[in-house]
Each structure stands twice: as structure tokens, then as C-alpha cells.
Amino acid sequence: SNQLTGSIPPEIGNLTNLSELLLYNNQLTGTIPPEIGNLTNLNKLNLGYNQFTGSIPPEIGNLTNLIDLKLRSNQLTGSIPPEIGNLTNLERLWLYTNGLTGEIPESICNLNVNWSDPNDFRIYNNQLCPPYPSCIEDYVGEQDTSDCP
């Protein structure tokens, strides 16, 4: 909440001892750099309420110490990478209010999230297509499926 503008530089990947990266509620643009996958000590990543575009980089699957991942309220597109299933310590996943498309990877069921708790899991207001993985099928919320096959 500092009115930051511009994009996250690839050099962010050099901050390998960082445990939390909280850049929410700014006016950041551009894509989430794949170098974010170098921050393997992160336990919290919150990039919500910005104007990020592009897709969630598959390198996010390298952040196996993440407990909290919040990418809500951006303009992210593309599908959720199957590598998200590597985040087996994750307890909170907020991806709501983006433009995510495609099917949700089955690997999401590897996560340690309490799917039924809206404080822990929010994925509504995207364009994600059924069939949904069984672990979350009752919790995907409102999705725009008009472009689904």
C-alpha cells in the first residue's frame, strides 16, 4: 500500500534470504518475473491488488516453503501451472478476481489448504473450466465458463 508503480525487476531473484514479499495494494504492472522462483525461503507472497498481467510463472512451484500465496485482484491470464502442486506446505491460496482460464490442474489437491474455509481458499471470479478437481469442486465459486469447450 505504497503507491508503487512499474514492474518487479528480474533482480528480485537475488534476494534469496527473503522470507516474505508483500507488495499488495500498489499500482505494479508487467508480469510476475520467473526469477521469483529463486526465492526458495519465502513463506509469504502477496502480490494482490495490483495490475499484473500475463500468466502465473511455473517457477512458482519452486517456492516449497510458501504457506501463504495471494495473487488476487490482478489481470492474470492463462492457466494455473501444474507446478502449483509442489507447494505442499501451502495453507492459504487466494487467486480470485483475475482472468485465469483453462482447467485447474489436479495437482492442486496436493496442497495442505482447508478448501472449505474461505479465509484459506478463494478462486472465484475467474474463467476456469470444469471439470474441477474433486478436492475443490464444491469451492470454486462463481466462474465465467462462457468460453469453456
Write the layout of secondary structure elements.
Elements: E1 5-6, E2 20-22, E3 27-28, E4 44-46, E5 68-70, E6 77-78, E7 92-94, E8 99-103, E9 121-122, E10 127-129
Parallel strand pairs: 1-3, 2-4, 4-5, 5-7, 6-8, 7-9, 8-10
Number of helices: 0
The main sheet comes to: 5 strands, parallel
- H and E order: EEEEEEEEEE
Strand order of the largest sheet: 2-4-5-7-9
Q: Spans of 5+ residues with little confidence (pLDDT < 50)? A: none
Derived from helix and strand composition plus strand pairing, the structural class reads: mainly beta
Oligomer state of the chains in this structure: single chain
Mean pLDDT: 98
Number of strands: 10
First and last CA, distance: 39 Å
Portion of residues in beta strands equals 15-25%
Shape: globular
List its salient traits.
single chain; five-stranded parallel sheet; 149 residues; 10 strands; three-stranded parallel sheet; mainly beta
Structure described in brief:
With 149 residues, this protein is an all-beta fold. It has strands at 5-6, 20-22, 27-28, 44-46, 68-70, 77-78, 92-94, 99-103, 121-122, 127-129. The strands form 3 sheets. Strands 2-4-5-7-9 form a 5-stranded parallel β-sheet, with no helix packed on it. Strands 6-8-10 form a 3-stranded parallel β-sheet, with no helix packed on it.
